[in-house]
């Protein structure tokens, strides 16, 4: 259901990890590697936390570098030995080998047929993003595949969203972010964009942020609201 009545956006910006791509394969691998049912959850939280540390302190490292450091921190927190660099890279390569959620291709197809301009915006670096989208067979749906790499600021920094709007020559108010993360939706709304929250299992909205324009359990459900 709609949180408020948004204007029809001219541009749709999609988050990638968890929003479009199913991370279950990576989750299983990380949990098995560290022998903990919560290892992936801890590691992903570290990945997000220290991407924000880099943004705030102005010392940028790309997502794979932070991910590798996160594995070292996770091992230390669990009282385990650090993994060899080669093993960490094997795990990180799984980020480029993730399938789309079952609702993604039907939802993107409906939006594409309706004439929406669609791009991605992800914290993953450009080469990883290209590999991810090719593996998931999602590339043809998107006008451009955008990464935060050029800005050297991670989402939810406002510059990441407004830079994408400038590049596509669409005003923030006429742009909608679609994401499965409360922090991403909060960042977009504070940057002046519309936003749709895709309520994937285990995800929640940030109660202290401006409300999203649309909310739905799947991309298909959000697409139906956008199409009226």
UniProtKB/TrEMBL annotation:
Q: Which CDD domains match?
A: HAD_L2-DEX
Q: Which InterPro entries match?
A: 2-HAD, HAD-like_sf, HAD-SF_hydro_IA, HAD_sf, PGP-like_dom2, S-2-haloacid_dehalogenase
> Tell me, what is one Gene Ontology molecular-function annotation carried by this entry?
hydrolase activity, acting on acid halide bonds, in C-halide compounds
Source species, domain of life = Bacteria
Q: Which Pfam family, giving just one, matches this sequence?
A: Hydrolase
Q: Which UniProt keywords apply?
A: Hydrolase
Which SUPFAM superfamilies does this UniProt record tie to the protein? HAD-like (SSF56784)
- Matches recorded under NCBIfam families: HAD-SF-IA-v2, HAD_type_II
Can you tell me which family this protein belongs to?
Belongs to the HAD-like hydrolase superfamily. S-2-haloalkanoic acid dehalogenase family.
**Protein name stated in the entry:** Haloacid dehalogenase
């Amino acid at each position: 259901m709609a949180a408020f009545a948004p204007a029809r956006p001219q541009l749709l910006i999609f988050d990638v990890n968890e929003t479009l791509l199913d991370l279950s394969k990576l989750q299983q691998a990380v949990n098995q590697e560290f022998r903990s049912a919560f290892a992936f959850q801890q590691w992903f939280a570290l990945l997000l936390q220290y991407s924000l540390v880099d943004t705030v302190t102005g010392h940028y490292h790309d997502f794979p570098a932070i991910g590798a450091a996160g594995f070292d921190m996770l091992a230390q927190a669990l009282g385990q030995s650090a993994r060899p660099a080669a093993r960490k890279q094997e795990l990180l390569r799984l980020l480029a080998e993730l399938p789309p959620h079952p609702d993604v291709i039907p939802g993107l197809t409906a939006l594409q047929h309706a004439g929406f301009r669609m791009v991605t915006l992800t914290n993953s670096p450009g080469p990883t993003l290209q590999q991810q989208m090719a593996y998931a067979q999602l590339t043809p749906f998107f006008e451009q595949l955008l990464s935060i790499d050029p800005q050297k600021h991670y989402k939810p920094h406002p510059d990441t969203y407004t830079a994408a709007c400038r590049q596509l020559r669409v005003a923030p108010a006429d742009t909608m972010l679609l994401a499965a993360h409360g922090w991403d939706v909060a960042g977009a709304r504070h940057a002046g964009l519309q936003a749709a929250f895709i309520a994937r299992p285990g995800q929640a909205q940030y109660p202290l942020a401006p409300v999203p324009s649309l909310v739905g359990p799947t991309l298909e459900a959000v697409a139906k609201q956008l199409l009226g």
